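Open question from group meeting: does this chain pack into something compact, or does most of it stay loose? Before anyone orders reagents, we agreed to write out a predicted structure and look at it together. Recording both the input and the output here so the notebook holds the full record.
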Amino acid sequence: MVYSKEKNIMNTIPKGFYYNFKHNPEQDIYNFAYYITGYEGGYTEDAEVPMVVYFRLYKTPKIWVRPAAMVFDDVSERVENIKKQPTRFFKVKDIETIQKLKEKFDEMYPDLLP
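C-alpha cells returned:
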C-alpha cells in the first residue's frame, strides 16, 4: 500500500540539483550536493513505497535510493543542521552553481544524462 502522504510528496519532487541540509556554503559548492533523478516504485517487506534516486556529486560517485517521504523530512532540529534548513534536501536555484554542478555530474557519471 502506498500512503497518500508519499503520493503527494512524490508528485512534488522535480528532477534537479539539490543540497542536503548538511551542506556548508562556506566550503566548496560540491559539499553535500546531489542530483535527484526523480522517483521510482520500490518495495519493502511491508509495502510498495515510492523511492527517490539521487547521485552524490562530491568525493567518489555513489548512487543513493531513499523513500520519497524522507526527501523533505523536517530536519530543522538536527544538531548537524548548521544552517537550520527545514527539510533534508533543498533545491539549488543559482544558475551558475547549477552549471558547475552539471559539469561535475558529467565528469563523475559520464555515461548518464541528468
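Observations to bring back to the group:
Residues 1-10 have pLDDT under 50 and may be disordered.
Residues 4-108 form one domain.
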